[in-house]
């Protein structure tokens, strides 16, 4: 196992340990390849939703009448339904109101100011207009070059 894989696995373990208490979460070191095995003691009816399933659940809930909404609340729990609604609302808002960093994909919202942007995720400079990466040494060259489609913008 590479050191990068090991570091990524340790990050996942820290995240899991912060979510689950000691009774639910256990880890065991494996001799083979230095792997760490994770054990979660979860209730039998525990469900994990990926975003595609959350979207399906949200759509089903929004189209349901009051009786079917109560059934969905009983089947999945009000918190899961609320999470599905909020997740999809956030995702739709981001799609409408932000652009993704061309380097790392972090959503970026521009409120005002110039078109030279700095990603908060990876600190890359990029142009808001064309989404091209900008030079670290002289990021404004892109806007001052008459040959650039973003000249004087």
TrEMBL record:
Pfam families, A to Z: Rcat_RNF216
Domain RING-type: 1-153
Top-level taxon of the source organism: Eukaryota
Listed SUPFAM superfamilies: RING/U-box (SSF57850), UBC-like (SSF54495)
One Gene Ontology biological process: protein ubiquitination
Alphabetical list of InterPro entries matching this protein: E3_UB_ligase_RBR, Rcat_RBR_RNF14, TRIAD_supradom, UBQ-conjugating_enzyme/RWD
Gene Ontology MF annotations: ubiquitin-protein transferase activity; zinc ion binding
Pathway the protein takes part in: Protein modification; protein ubiquitination
Database matches in CDD domains: Rcat_RBR_RNF14
Range of residues in the leader sequence: none
Keyword tags: Metal-binding, Repeat, Transferase, Ubl conjugation pathway, Zinc, Zinc-finger
PROSITE patterns referenced in this protein's UniProt entry, alphabetically: TRIAD
Protein name (database record): RNF14 isoform 12
Species in which this protein is naturally found: Pan troglodytes (Chimpanzee)
